[in-house]
Amino acid sequence: MTPSIPIISAAGAALLFLFCQPVAAESAALSSANTAWILTSTALVLFMTLPGLALFYGGLVRSKNVLSVLMQCFSIAGVVSILWLIVGYSLAFGEGNAWIGDMSKVMLAGIGRETLSGDIPESLFMLFQMTFAIIATALIVGGFAERMKFSAMLLFSALWMLAVYVPVTHWVWGGGWLGEMGLYDFAGGTVVHITCGVAALVAALVLGPRRGFPNQAMPPHNMTMTFIGAGMLWVGWFGFNGGSALAANGDAAMAMLVTHISAAAGALVWYVSEWIRFGKPSALGAVTGMVAGLGTITPASGFVGPGGALVIGILAGFVCFNATLFIKRKLKIDDSLDVFPVHGVGGALGTLLVGVFASTQLGVFSGYGFADTVNGMGGQMYVQLVGVLATVAFTAVVTFVILKVVDLLLGLRVTEEQEIQGLDIVLHEERGYDNL
Hints:
Blueprint: H1 5-29, H2 32-60, H3 66-93, E1 116-117, E2 120-121, H4 122-139, H5 141-144, H6 150-173, H7 177-181, H8 189-207, H9 223-242, H10 250-278, H11 283-297, H12 306-330, H13 339-357, H14 370-373, H15 376-409, H16 416-421, H17 423-428
Antiparallel strand pairs: 1-2
């Protein structure tokens, strides 16, 4: 007996639904727009380190040490990338517990081309986060520039990334205890800037000052190089903060806008502060103030509006400028390239100010009102303070231990004669400039 037309039609429709459903679900799950934006952001963040930070730092040191700084930034990018692939990503973003992730994603186990993190490929999310680990570790170079052995730098960077950066990342972004408390850190105030700033300060204290500090002037050897690197950092920061939205949407656009505003305000306030105090504004002050504005807005970039960003940038320029004078002139700590007063102080300041400027109670200066709806302004400020203090304490203690272990195994510092000769020729048998 021949099946009726309605039965055949129903069976065909059912088969069509079964075959087409998985394809439709997959195309709906993966966002091509978001994937394209995070691909771009990933390139921008790596661009911040290579060549941005390398040129920025390279121009700030003396000519006899320029290649050593470039080599350190370049080598850190390689070492951190390999360690992030092998175990770093798994420990940071694996399920684990409140303190550290598990080993389920070692060597990207179980992650293929079709595996998603939200609506982007997980391989892309892993790569994006890798670039954050790279620049956080590379920023510490500024604290011990011109005096650490290359071998010691490599071992320290590897151990620090695994023992400090990875756990703090898990605490905040990987499902750990700070994230569960409700800490607001959109793009790395605690995870990147406080950790690298505190680590640089501890390294400067453990190694001691450069020969001649503070009596001998040690001006940047090439401000043109530093300016080029600073411009790359400013542009790359759009990927750093805007990409942290993990989507091509209004949050990313606002994060980029407030990032730019804070950078501009930080630069202006810093060199005006110099102008008032010393009689002239400097190019070095302009670029350093810009970086202070960028670092300070980073944790707040996804939570505040333009008015809040303007105030944060102004405070960044003023507070970080005075913190630099206090560290160098009052405490006489040779944090060579001002990593702690710019990134450590700026990161802490920005992390605390999220609790203020994310509140709708501030009218035109407010952001999205998260602090009102979740914890209230006072409650959010408490959470932010806990995050800052925990990150500072953990980073300081573990960094100190790592430095002592590396010193025991390899020795941290070059000899006095090697420091006088310069690390370029002593450690790499090369010179940055043939005519010197």
